[in-house]
Amino acid sequence: MFRLRFGVVILGIVFTINSCDSNPPTEKFIDLTRNQVDILFVSENSGAQRIYAVQDTTFDQVYSLSLGNNNGTLDPSWSPDGRKFAYTNMLVITQTGYPFHSNIYIVNMDSFNNAFTQVTLSPYVIDSNGIHYGTINMRPDWSLQTNKVVFISDRDSVFNIFITDISDTLTGDTLPTVLTDINDKIDIFCYPSFSPDGSKIVYTSKKSGNEEIWIMNSDGSNKVQLTHNNATLNSRPRFSPSADRISFFSSMWINGNDSLQVYTMDPNGSNLDTVTTSGNNYDPSWSPDGNEIVFAKRGGSPSKPRSYIYIIGRNGLNERKLISGDNKAYYPAWRPQP
Questions:
Q1: What is the CA radius of gyration of the chain?
Q2: 198 secondary structure, DSSP code
Q3: I want to staple 313 with a disulfide (CB 3.0 to 4.6 A). Which of 106, 125, 217, 317 is the partner?
Q4: CA–CA separation, 263 vs 284, rounded Å?
């Protein structure tokens, strides 16, 4: 294991964005060591991606978390106790020869002074000509049972899925274990995710030609293709808390519609159900009790595209808007029940 920490960070300073589209952001203070946020999501402001949060009792206020990085933060994933989360930290190095790269970090909301720990340490690779290329480590998913994090990385020149143990100091393995190889055709749009018991991982792969959903054991063995939709996009598969269904979004042509929609299926790929039917919907994530799904919906106009966070019942009923605003909002992650 390696350990790398950053200095004092004021996690309590946040910005509040009212849910009404026309209201400008206002500054507000919240002490995250004493308060709980419940849904994390990503939003874009002036082109930069940032992680935001809401409390499930005050959906009218959105908190912009101060994560100490102006280059971008995304891909939030909750810890088992709901008081920490892993995320992707985008880094732009200005020093000559050290290009853009990204690594995975953890925020401990119970630690005010040393809040951030670094999980991956892979800033760049050097080719045979001595040229530095930035490496990408992103899409973390934190197992709720085994205290492992799965993620994707191109540290081997192509994207693969890796797994790492999270230590008591909230750091990862110096050399994480690779679970896939070049034949699995993993790309940057892959979002690997654990089953609730940590024994399986669902992910996307172009191994069969299209971007389809696969499942494998958490040690990388027994890879099985679950979808055969022949769609250009099947993405972000997630097990329900009870492991009875897998949610995902797809551009498959169904009922005369090839827009992005949210679907669920059995863990073996059977019994496909359509959850959303109108608009373009993506990035589904389960509620802690498994009765609802939070997701992103595209909106706005062609000249000013937007996306908002919605919630819907797992049966496709009672769809309602959770978060609106003047920016794009996507990739929601609902805090698990500890």
A1: 19
A2: S
A3: 317
A4: 9
- Please give the residue that has the higher pLDDT: either 22 or 250: 250
For the CA atoms of 38, 44, 48, 50, the dihedral, rounded to the nearest 10 degrees, stands at 0
pLDDT for residue 280: 93
33-53 confidence digits (pLDDT tens): 888 899 999 988 667 788 888
pTM, two decimal places: 0.88
CA proximity to 19, closest of 329, 333, 336, 337? 329
Within 13 A of 182's CA, how many CA atoms are on the CB side? 4
Q: Which CATH class is domain 13-334?
A: mainly beta
pLDDT digits (tens, 9 = 90+) for 118-137: 999 887 767 677 766 788 99
Give 16: exposed, middle or buried? Use CB within 10 Å, 0-12, 13-18, 19+.
middle
C-alpha to C-alpha distance for 103 and 246, rounded to whole angstroms: 27
Cβ atoms 10, 27 nearer than 8 A: no
pLDDT at 62: 82
Per the listing, tokens 């419940």 go with: 38
HSE toward the beta carbon, residue 30, CA cutoff 13 A: 21
Point out which residues pair with 300 in neighbouring strands. Answer: 305
